[in-house]
């Protein structure tokens, strides 16, 4: 497993031909330092692990890896099935005609939801379809000061890779002199 820049891992993920609604995610603060852990899974596309940190208020840096190509039941059980939170990955839209097409689809979607009985989940899913999101779904995220237990379970399951990601991320944090704050 090759540790890569987190953006390259996301590019690989969005280029997969997978049902965008079947993605699920777990995220939370890193257990050993600044930044966050994010696991993304899809039954046909595999399991990904990203570790990121804010280099400054406008730039996120990090590393990632694809852990497995197929999800087994033990891994799948760690991810949310119900929707507490939601995540989405946005693929950049080409300029010109494509922007107009996406804008028109979003406007039509919103108009349809204004006139019909709907739920926030229905609206979310329809808007993700309208913008062509390559991955979206339920997210388990607890916020600052807390971590979903599943993060620790997956970190133990993939201990060697997690340590490799940690070392690389700590090296990046040190090189970026993050310990001294923004300025």
Topology readout:
Blueprint: E1 4-5, H1 6-15, E2 24-29, E3 36-42, E4 46-56, E5 59-68, H2 73-76, E6 85-89, H3 97-114, H4 120-131, E7 135-141, H5 149-157, H6 159-175
Parallel strand pairs: 2-7
Antiparallel strand pairs: 1-5, 2-3, 3-4, 4-5, 6-7
Can you put this structure into words, describing what you see?
The protein is built from six helices and seven strands; from the N terminus they run βαββββαβααβαα. Strand 3 and strand 4 (46-56) form a beta hairpin. The protein has 183 residues and is α+β, with helices and mostly antiparallel strands. The protein folds into two domains: 4-88 and 137-180, no CATH class; 92-132. Helix 3 packs antiparallel against helix 4. It has helices at residues 6-15, 73-76, 97-114, 120-131, 149-157, 159-175, and strands at residues 4-5, 24-29, 36-42, 46-56, 59-68, 85-89, 135-141. The model has no long low-confidence stretch (mean pLDDT 90). A seven-stranded mixed β-sheet has the order 1-5-4-3-2-7-6, with helices on both faces.
In short:
With 183 residues, this protein is an alpha+beta fold. It has helices spanning 6-15, 73-76, 97-114, 120-131, 149-157, 159-175; strands spanning 4-5, 24-29, 36-42, 46-56, 59-68, 85-89, 135-141. It folds into 2 domains: 4-88 and 137-180, no CATH class; 92-132.
